[in-house]
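Anyone up for a design puzzle?
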């Protein structure tokens, strides 16, 4: 007992037990304080309860408790968080901004996330998860724009999936398997796209039901508290989709995307790490999978747009510049850290690129980003500026991104 009203913590005895040692917060410093004491100076305190419990107390007879099933009601529909969001669809569509909200009950039997974004059109996405039984299920509802090789398109629909996850190791390194089969019902149409001599577009809605599945294995993933990305581990992933019963003419679309991510502990004692990633996409129609996720922001445009078979090799090296970890009382702004990200991205068309003409038929960009993690009130924000340089075209691209 230090008789301090506040800002006193970590009380302990010094080695010879003659003094009580504790820490006091004095302005912006934490000061060691010593208090002389002896065992005789401590008052003997008799602990006794002043609470009188009834004879039929529930605490004395738990077998008499009344047990009722857990019910959530509809209060979980009230949003627990409402955040601003920024979105960039397919890599190179105009930036869009909106709001994201989420909610759920205390046991997460029901949870949802809703996003409403304004770009050229209103974009809405709703994800609902139910875990009242194992393994539960997830429902996605969406209405969003798509950037295709022939112009802007819209898609609307829903997806039902069953998230399955098996944990194989969970200590300093984590390993698990994730499998997510599902069914998606989507409608698709073009908007404001002129008819050309080579293609005649129908502006009616096309119906595209499909079977989807994704499988991923995370092997010995390790990420310390101050690491920007995992410092070791391997990720193997595969995602497929097959359209069934589509009203489009010709062969039913199908697609497959697979890849591997390897994290390397380069100077991990200083929180440095390197990511090496390889992705491959193969599809009968370009509308199955977007190629925007394979392309680094440092490119001035998407060089893989409209390709049926494409690949990407990427290297990302991250290292912190400084950890601030300080805040201000008058302004609720907390800067956590500043860090650099060095990137190399090589993308290529699998139909034309071979080992002999790799340099001529592939495109490579080198990028550097200065990024920061900070919080405004309790809102985490990641923002940064970057530059990409494509040496074969001597093209420089400056970009800015912010993630809420």
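Challenge accepted. My sequence:
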């Amino acid at each position: 007992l230090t008789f301090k009203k506040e800002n006193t913590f970590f009380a302990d005895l010094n080695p010879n037990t003659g003094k009580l040692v504790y820490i006091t917060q004095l302005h912006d410093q934490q000061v060691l304080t010593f208090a002389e004491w002896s065992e005789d100076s401590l008052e003997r305190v008799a602990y006794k309860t002043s609470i009188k419990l009834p004879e039929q107390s529930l605490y004395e007879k738990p077998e008499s408790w009344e047990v009722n099933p857990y019910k959530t009601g509809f209060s979980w529909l009230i949003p627990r968080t409402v955040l601003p969001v920024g979105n960039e669809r397919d890599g190179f569509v105009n930036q869009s901004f909106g709001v994201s909200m989420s909610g759920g009950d205390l046991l997460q039997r029901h949870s949802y996330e809703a996003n409403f974004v304004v770009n050229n059109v209103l974009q809405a996405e709703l994800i609902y998860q139910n875990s009242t039984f194992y393994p539960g299920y997830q429902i996605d509802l969406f209405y969003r724009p798509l950037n295709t090789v022939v112009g802007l398109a819209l898609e609307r629909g829903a997806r039902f999936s069953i998230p399955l996850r098996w944990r194989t190791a969970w200590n300093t390194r984590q390993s698990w398997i994730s499998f997510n089969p599902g069914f998606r019902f989507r409608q698709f149409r073009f908007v404001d796209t002129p008819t050309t001599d080579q293609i005649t577009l129908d502006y009616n809605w096309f119906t595209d039901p499909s079977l989807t599945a994704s499988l991923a294995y995370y092997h010995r993933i390790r990420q310390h508290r101050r690491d920007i990305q995992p410092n070791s581990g391997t990720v193997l992933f595969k995602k497929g989709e097959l359209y069934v019963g589509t009203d489009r003419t010709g062969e039913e679309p199908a697609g497959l995307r697979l890849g591997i991510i390897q994290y390397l502990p380069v100077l991990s004692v200083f929180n440095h790490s390197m990511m090496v990633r390889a992705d491959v996409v193969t599809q009968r129609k370009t509308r199955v999978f977007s190629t925007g996720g394979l392309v680094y922001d440092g490119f001035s445009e998407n060089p893989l747009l409209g390709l049926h078979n494409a690949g990407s090799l990427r290297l990302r090296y991250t290292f912190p510049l400084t950890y601030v970890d300080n805040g201000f009382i008058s302004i609720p702004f907390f800067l956590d850290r500043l860090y650099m990200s060095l990137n190399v991205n090589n993308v290529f068309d699998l139909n034309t690129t071979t080992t002999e003409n790799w340099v001529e038929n592939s495109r490579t960009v080198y990028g550097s980003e200065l990024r920061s993690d900070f919080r405004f009130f309790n809102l985490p924000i990641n923002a940064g500026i970057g530059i990409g340089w494509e040496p074969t075209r001597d093209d420089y691209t400056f970009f800015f991104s912010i993630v809420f």
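A detail worth pointing out: The radius of gyration is 28 Å.
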